[in-house]
Amino acid sequence: MKQFYSKLWTAVLLLMIVFQFSAFAQNAVTISGNVKDKLTNEPLPGVSINVKGKVTGTTTDIKGNFSLKTNTTSAFTITVAYIGYKPQEIVISGSQIGLSIAMEAEAILGQEVVVAASRVEEKILESPVSIEKMGAAAVQATAGPSFYDALANMKGVEMSAQSLTFKSINTRGFNANGNERFNQFIDGMDNQAPGLNFSVGNIVGVSELDVQSVELLPGASSALYGSGGTNGTLLMTSKSPFTSQGLSYSAKLGMNHTDGYENDRSPLYEMNVRYAKAFNNKLAFKINASLLQATDWKAQDNRNIDRLTETMKSGDRNSDPNYDGVNVYGDEINANLKDVAKGMIAANVLPATISTPGGPVPTINFFPNQSVSRTGYQESDLVDFDTKSYKFSGALHYRLNSSVEAIAQANWGTGTSVYTGSDRYSLRNFSLGQYKLELKGSNFYLRGYTTQERSGEAYNATALASIINESWSPSAPDPERPSVAPWFPTYTGAFFQAKLAGKSDEDAFNIARATADKNRPAPGSETFNTLKDQITARTIGPAFGAKFNDKTNLYQTEGMYNFTEQVKFAELLTGASYKVYDLNSDGTIFDDAAQSIDIKEYGAFAQMGKKVLNDKLKLTAGIRYDKNENFKGSFTPRVSAVYTVANDHNFRVSYQTGFRNPTTQNQFIDLLIRANTRLIGGLPVILDKYNLRTNKGYTQASLIEFQKTGDPAVLQKYTFTEFSPESVKAYEIGYKGLINRKLLVDFYYYYNSYKNFISTLNLVQSSDGTPAGIATGKTFSTVVNNPAKVNSQGWALGLDYMISKYSIGGNVSFNELKGGQDALETSYNTPKVRYNLNFGSKEVFKNTGFNISYRWQDAFNWSSSFATGDVPAFGSVDAMVSYKVPSMKTMFKMGGSNIMNKYYRTSFGNPQMGGVYYVSILFDQFLK
């Protein structure tokens, strides 16, 4: 792998030399001038000046002045763009000094330029599919604590919040904590952690000071972006050091837990700094640093759950001997009281009979057929809630000539957060680095990058609680520790003694637990803390610890070329990619304790677009082929049409296909998540490791039915078939139009049909292959292709209206599942209805702006490998007010998210979130 990438970098450097020598043969042209507001005659800083079709460009300084050089000798065009102003194009025929440009302010509804929808620049009004965009100015105007939080206000967007800094974005159903069906890219780099399989854009991502744009593409996008984009794609682009120079910084002081509901009031600190500098419009660099510290939300749902039937049940620890709290860990370990008693009788620990005045009575008659769980620990006893996020990035840009630019970029971040997977994980000192070399021109790019994931001190909170329990008192007799009283036999013996004393079952259960828990380490005690430190320092597996040891890497090379200049009659794009997942978890996540696992994927695409009927109809067609070494290859075609019925009024229709290869965990995970419960991949090599294709497991659905009826005939064993990538056919129609230059309307309807939908399958493998062995069998959770039809549909409507200096907007979306609700879990995890409302102004009074947004979503059922349950409906208000001091290039801001402090959760098993309030200061010499 290292040899491959050294050859790649050598090829890139050779190309750079070729382009550099070609540049020497050309003469430089200089353009300089000043840009002002047409009405006020005030200079405009930060205006983008670019040579059309080239990489050459610059920005105006704080006095509105600019200067740039280009090697283009023939007549060419420069573009002048600034948020809130009408863009201009000016033809230049040679060097021109003292150019005066006056820009006219205008509403920009629908005029933003996007690239995500087609990989070519086009106005958002003319996009062939639905697309949302947030620019740098919108980032400054967000009401919430971060721009990433504000993505939830976009049309059709779903968000799952597992902690203060860990939030996952999704669209069009099948939401998940790890959003495996949603692609997320930062400057072209896939932001997914290659081993843990979740995107980490808000943990290790772009600093708010460095955000140039965020484009969100709902729906299937695999034809352009490859595997994973079955539900959507998010592209975050950072600022160029050529066009955004100088120093900028921000500081934010916030407060959460203000009512002391789950934690004492605690501060939130966030600081960002960015510096960029260009030299002679040839060489430029930028550096970014960000830090955030806060006390996280705590998941503390103590309701009683039956994990077999995935339903809530009544009772708590005092009333239900088999209590299992949603966010209480270690109590998943249970045993049947009667079965334990039988074993103790067989071992002569308990007598077979008891003498009573009425004659001998079998001892087993004193024990009810009741499961008993161990006493667990609260999440707050186990997880590190001192949230931290430290992000650093830097980039070096070099323009070889007016058409080609070379970039070396590094993004690295580390932090502590909490993630919900099959269990709750404390991501303590988790880090991720992304390192890229790229050569890009006006019509091509070639990039190679690597993503380096390091789990740091991350650990499994559920495993930690269980191992603490096993450390001080093993659940069953331990031959290596014969002097330590086992918990379940101790409980059973104490229950028996209480019954002999005439106690009721309820009293006997309480006495038994008190006896068995006599030496249980109390949370916060020295013994507890010592055990916690020891266990979180040991790795999962034979070391009997809770710590991950993941050092998984991704290596990717990709390129694209736009042949439009050569082909002339149409837009023609081609591209290809090659990636390798290098799994390294030492057996703590994957089945790689005794073997090396690499997964190779490659793909290529082509797309052609053509305008016909006097440029009123644009037709686009594309196709992509991808191959993962463990699965058959997949073709993903894409066809779209945009018809302009009148200026600024466009109807669109598209047929897109998407696919996703099973994730690295879907393929090779092998993780013990609870006693006798293992999470495994769906590849035959993993299934055969546990003989699941020979000693077949009973399905969860049939076990639930057996529990209800007691009839063994209802039990069903599962037969595995070929495991394949998941694919989707996505149909969309829509309209986007600008009415009277004031009202932007965007509507779409979609219908998705999935094939080989990857679903979770829970099985119990009998110890002897018969129903009698279920009680002593093993539980497996794996993934398979759902044989049922899985279809979904939905629509969304967005309205944005500009009236004077105010903007009023809102959107509503509807989503529903149309099939696939059978024994295999689809985890749709999406409310039918959600809507957003917003009202704001950049300058309601002189230098004073505000923004208010309201978000509401319907109740729905959430299902995951962690837990299943209902998520109540909720509404939340975010608001902010800002004040600019132009002479200081400074903006002060005060605001908050969920300012009414009405606690809500976005997904089951995750924490409830209250209000976060903040004040901030931003300095930016190009403040807009």
UniProtKB/TrEMBL annotation:
<dbReference type="Pfam" id="PF07715">
    <property type="entry name" value="Plug"/>
</dbReference>
<dbReference type="InterPro" id="IPR039426">
    <property type="entry name" value="TonB-dep_rcpt-like"/>
</dbReference>
<dbReference type="InterPro" id="IPR037066">
    <property type="entry name" value="Plug_dom_sf"/>
</dbReference>
<keyword id="KW-0472">Membrane</keyword>
<keyword id="KW-0998">Cell outer membrane</keyword>
<comment type="similarity">
    <text>Belongs to the TonB-dependent receptor family.</text>
</comment>
<dbReference type="InterPro" id="IPR008969">
    <property type="entry name" value="CarboxyPept-like_regulatory"/>
</dbReference>
<keyword id="KW-1134">Transmembrane beta strand</keyword>
<keyword id="KW-0732">Signal</keyword>
<keyword id="KW-0812">Transmembrane</keyword>
<keyword id="KW-0813">Transport</keyword>
<dbReference type="GO" id="GO:0009279">
    <property type="term" value="C:cell outer membrane"/>
</dbReference>
<feature type="domain" description="TonB-dependent receptor plug">
    <location>
        <begin position="125"/>
        <end position="233"/>
    </location>
</feature>
<dbReference type="InterPro" id="IPR000531">
    <property type="entry name" value="Beta-barrel_TonB"/>
</dbReference>
<dbReference type="Pfam" id="PF13715">
    <property type="entry name" value="CarbopepD_reg_2"/>
</dbReference>
<feature type="domain" description="TonB-dependent receptor-like beta-barrel">
    <location>
        <begin position="402"/>
        <end position="889"/>
    </location>
</feature>
<feature type="signal peptide">
    <location>
        <begin position="1"/>
        <end position="25"/>
    </location>
</feature>
<protein>
    <submittedName>
        <fullName>Outer membrane receptor proteins, mostly Fe transport</fullName>
    </submittedName>
</protein>
<keyword id="KW-0675">Receptor</keyword>
<dbReference type="Pfam" id="PF00593">
    <property type="entry name" value="TonB_dep_Rec_b-barrel"/>
</dbReference>
<dbReference type="GO" id="GO:0015344">
    <property type="term" value="F:siderophore uptake transmembrane transporter activity"/>
</dbReference>
<dbReference type="InterPro" id="IPR036942">
    <property type="entry name" value="Beta-barrel_TonB_sf"/>
</dbReference>
<dbReference type="InterPro" id="IPR012910">
    <property type="entry name" value="Plug_dom"/>
</dbReference>
<dbReference type="GO" id="GO:0044718">
    <property type="term" value="P:siderophore transmembrane transport"/>
</dbReference>
<keyword id="KW-0798">TonB box</keyword>
